[in-house]
Structure formats: C-alpha cells, structure tokens
Amino acid sequence: MKREYNYNFIKEEKERAATLCTLWHVGDNAKIVNDWIDIYIEGMKEGTRLEGDRAKVDFVKQQLETDFHATIVHLEEPALRYLLARLLFYTNNELEFGNVVCWLGGKYVEPLIKVTSFSIPDFLFMINEYLAVTRGDPQNEVEMKLIKIAQKSNLLNAQYAEKYAVFTSILEVLSKRGWQHHLKGFKTILKYISSDDLDIIAYLKNFHIISKQGCYIMLNTLLNYPIHEDVYTDFAIKRRIIEISDTARGAKYTSSWESKALELIKSVPTDKLKGWCDIMDEKGYEWTGYDYPGWTDAAVKRFRKAALWISQMMSV
Questions:
Q1: What is the pTM of this model?
Q2: Which of 51, 158, 163, 262 pairs with 36 at a CA distance of 20 to 30 A?
C-alpha cells in the first residue's frame, strides 16, 4: 500500500510541524531543521525524476550527512526533538517519485533518540496529533522507535493514567502497520505491564491490527483464552507462553528452550496448556497465511512449533 507522492501530503505535514515548533518552543532553529528536510525532499524528487540521476541522489545524501554533523547535532534539544519527530514521520511514510520510493533519514533517528528527552504531554502530542495520520509502513518499525524514546525518557514506568495513555498510543501506531515479520514491539510492551495495569490488559484483549495478520489473531485468541481466574496471573502466564513460543526456532529445541518450556508445563494446569496447544494445532495452519495469500506468517510458524514441542513434552 504505497502513498503516491503529492504536494498536499508534504504541505499538510509542514502545517502540523509548525504546530510542534510553537508547542516545543523551537524558535529560530526551526529554519535550520526545515531547510535540512527540504534539501532531502527536493533533492530526491529531482534525483529520481524519470529514470533517475544516481549522482544527484548520492550528492543530496552526502550533503545531508555533512550538514547533520556540522550543524544539526549542535542545536538545542527542542530543535533536535523537533527534527526527530519529523524524521519519524518521513521514515514511516514513503515518498514516491516516479518508480523510486524514498525514506528520509532513517540513519539519523537512533542518534537523535540518544540525545533527546520527552515529557509525557509532548510524547503523546507527537503520537496522537502529529503522527496520527501516518499509515504505518511495515518496513520501518516506527513503534520500536517510539518504545525506545519512551524507555529513554522513562515514560513506560509513569503513573497509571499516564502509563495507560502512553501504552495505548504506541499500540495504536502498531495497529496501523502492514505485514509484520516479528512481534518485537508487542513483546517489549508486555514486559512493562504490572499487576496494577488491569485496564491495559483489558485493552490488549481487544487489540487488533488493520492488516488482520494471522499472528495477531492468534495473540488475541490466546489473550482471551481462560487459564487462571486472577486477571494478572492469567496475563503473566500468557506473557510467558508468548515469549517461549516466539523463540521456538530450528529443527530441534535447545536445552535452554527445553528448560523454560518444562518450567511452564509445571506451573500451568495441564488441561489449560494442552487446550492451547490443541488450538494451535487446529487453527495454526489457517493463521499462518491468514488474509495474505502467498505469504507465510513466521511468528505463527514459531508458535505452532512450540505447541508441538510442548505437547510432546507433556506426553512423555
């Protein structure tokens, strides 16, 4: 699902970026950031027109890198935070020039995360207002970048109401992703859920992604499958099942994986764990290619393999 390049797309982003400038008090440094991004947009447009001018593209990329290290890195933090927000937008939305698709500055995001901090209001505004219209490109894992920002700014351990807002906002971004080859972002969020986060657990039980990919139908089925009457204990067991299942790789399980699986078997009622393994046996093949003919869901394959191995262990 590619967004065709048009001036409205960029014009609308610049209007929202102006709101960030005001809110974050970026000041005169905004022009330096804006000019840097404009170099990329116009350079890629010119360099890839028709059959493309590779030399022009390479020149633009070199100019960006030179200016970044000579000028951008020395700006005050509000300007760096502003640039980071804009890069998140453009790395998550491809610009299509003729037959060439471009993403702006993915290599600059990680360095900027390391030198910026966000308050909860600023983080939520960036996600829910500025980034709200982004469609979620499957190749760029923007939710992982947002999680790293939240980790760096200690937002994942916020007070409850704010924590709920942070978690659900990141999950909303994740829900817009296309075909996903791993569950890294989802599993990272699960690690931060505590016994006080019952509303987040309830939210997760109703979480879906727009692509209707099989692995998330599978996860939704697991999260709603009854294992324990205590809500948090039930969730904690399922978090362990997810972590163990998603690491089932290779033709034969390792001793380390076996040890974790045996601990799970000892701590979960046999009928409940067997019931889940039976569900994976019955539904797993269907979920492997759900709604994506010709594609194979690698996450579901790992969960199917884990269910088979655990079933074999329980039958010994």
A1: 0.89
A2: 51
